[in-house]
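Why EamA domain-containing protein? Reviewers of the renewal asked for a concrete example.
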Amino acid sequence: MKNGASDKDNKTEGRHRYGLGILLIICAVFIFSIMDALVKYLGSQSLNSIYIIGIRFTLTFFWTLLILKPWKHPEVTRTKHLGLHLIRAACMIFAAFTVFVALKYLSMPAMTSIVFAAPLIVSILAGYFLGEKIGPRRIVAVIIGFLGVLVVTRPGTSFFSLAALLALLTAVLNAFYSMTTRRLSDHDRPETAFFYTALAGIIVLLPILPFFWETPDSWTIWLALFVLSVLSTLAHGILTIAHKYAPASILAPFYYAQLISAIFLSVIFFKQVPDKWTLIGGSIVVASGLYVFYREHVRKKEKRESQSAR
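Here is what the prediction returned.
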């Protein structure tokens, strides 16, 4: 009886932990949508992209120091994989630029739908960079997902533009960011990756920031920049905590909740209602991504079962 009760308690505790992890992921992706809304607002104010992104990363580094306190906890700075950290940081910095420019011209739902191609790109590249086996069903799901991207971007129409290509480039950068994060998770603490991303941002952007300095003529712009840096730090911190409560295979599908929040904020703040092609294409991308996550979960489960049977 005691063993049965103990197993039941463990399962209940596991469900509660997973539930908390899922809730944290949903909060994080909603914050990411708010960040996109702030970026879109700042882009409408005719401010230089390097200025805005430089201010964001400078403030983010300040918050990172306050949270991690590396002078008290030097272990967060220790790594044997500095090169991977720099690649990861470079992906994030360049993605910040592509997002900023693309959101000037694309609606938030369209941008989010295209960027959701990142897991599909990861699925392709994982076979080469991570040595993962990719089955035919996953390949078909990836192809269908990219057809969804084509539905959103509509090549050959007036909608297809440099902004759409930049959104797709953002997906590629996010894919490499995700793969380097996955590699680093086997060796370093999440806080270490957090620290080096913030550090690289300030090393790259702070020296050139004075050459692109603009003094905003409105306090709302200063407020938006301040809130953007706080939310960036908060969202990535929440992601780190969420993955301590639940495995990535459980959490991954809930990243797609960002499309719902993107539609909501786009309608509320910018009066931009997604057209039918964005909704159809976005749905195809999401469905394909969910299937890829499902197949990855099945593959890992089969691998564990085969190992335990030996």
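DSSP finds twelve helices and no strands in the chain. This is the kind of structural detail the renewal will allow us to pursue systematically.
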